Amino acid sequence: MSIEAIAEAFFKAIEQGDVDTLNRLYADDAGVWHNFDGITQTKAEGVQTLAQFAAVADSRYELQQRYVVGDTVIQRHNIHIRMKATGASKVIPVAVFLKFRDGKVAHIYEYLDSAHVVAEAFEGVADMSAA
């Protein structure tokens, strides 16, 4: 199976909340780094985070671009999220680098565009630039 096919299976497993497939696709020593907190999660932490997320939200990946460069898949996508309890939805632009080793996801570098989170945090706050 090509690394592009493995990447496709990986994102489908996230959408479906398929923890068994995620565990199978990750290397045992995999790391998952996020730009929003600078922390690298272990395989177990990454899978647990995705399982917890799938319990409260439905997600769908809308592929924008994907490139395979050597042992790395570089992908830009929008993740469409709908909260199960409220139906609230959000679209988050993401760029991700998946580095492979021996047919497994060995490391992920994930860059989420959090600009909308900042905008929502300040929504309704008076324009401070006029002061």
TrEMBL record:
SUPFAM superfamilies: NTF2-like. Transmembrane segments: none annotated. It comes from the Bacteria. Residues 7-107 form the SnoaL-like domain. This is Nuclear transport factor 2 family protein. It comes from Sphingobium phenoxybenzoativorans.
